[in-house]
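Per your request, structure below.
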């Protein structure tokens, strides 16, 4: 153990296995989605925010202020078929969440951006989620807070690995046989 940190030195083990078995992976998989859903539900209720499906939130996260993307770019990043993203964007435009316009660079392309309304909604969701999470964290024991704080960098790396694997998948095929 490191004398000053109380944490294992590089190459040491702490008695805790460094390998997460399938049961541990299943536990983690069972924790993350309900945590995310719970935060969204409480945020919606506490701020009287509209229900935005995950797919819409993912689109908006890819369109921060000043960023425009084509529907094809959004489909590729989100791993959605072109018809699916087209329908999603049409609905989001009707709800005032995105705007679409002809590209200045290539008149054959459409560019999509988040509206100010959508950006304000996301900011409210984010602020409410942060407050809710901070309040819930305040109810935990110091040792639990330390464990969570220590896990955040590893969870960020895990997220990056999962996202990289998802992006490496072959393109989504659109079934045009109907």
């Amino acid at each position: 153990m490191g004398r000053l940190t109380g944490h294992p030195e590089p190459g040491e083990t702490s008695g805790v296995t460094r390998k997460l078995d399938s049961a541990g992976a299943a536990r983690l998989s069972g924790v993350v989605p309900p945590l995310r859903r719970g935060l969204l539900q409480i945020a919606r209720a506490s701020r009287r925010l509209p229900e935005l499906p995950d797919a819409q939130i993912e689109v908006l996260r890819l369109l921060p202020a000043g960023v425009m993307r084509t529907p094809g770019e959004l489909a590729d990043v989100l791993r959605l078929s072109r018809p699916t993203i087209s329908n999603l964007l049409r609905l989001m435009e009707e709800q005032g969440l995105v705007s679409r316009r002809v590209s200045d660079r290539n008149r054959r392309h459409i560019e999509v951006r988040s509206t100010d309304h959508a950006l304000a909604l996301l900011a409210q969701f984010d602020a409410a989620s942060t407050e809710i999470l901070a309040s819930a964290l305040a109810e935990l024991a110091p040792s639990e807070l330390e464990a969570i704080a220590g896990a955040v960098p590893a969870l960020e790396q895990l997220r990056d690995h999962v996202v990289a694997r998802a992006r490496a998948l072959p393109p989504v095929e659109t079934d045009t046989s109907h």
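Residues 1-9 have pLDDT under 50 and may be disordered.

Regards,
D.
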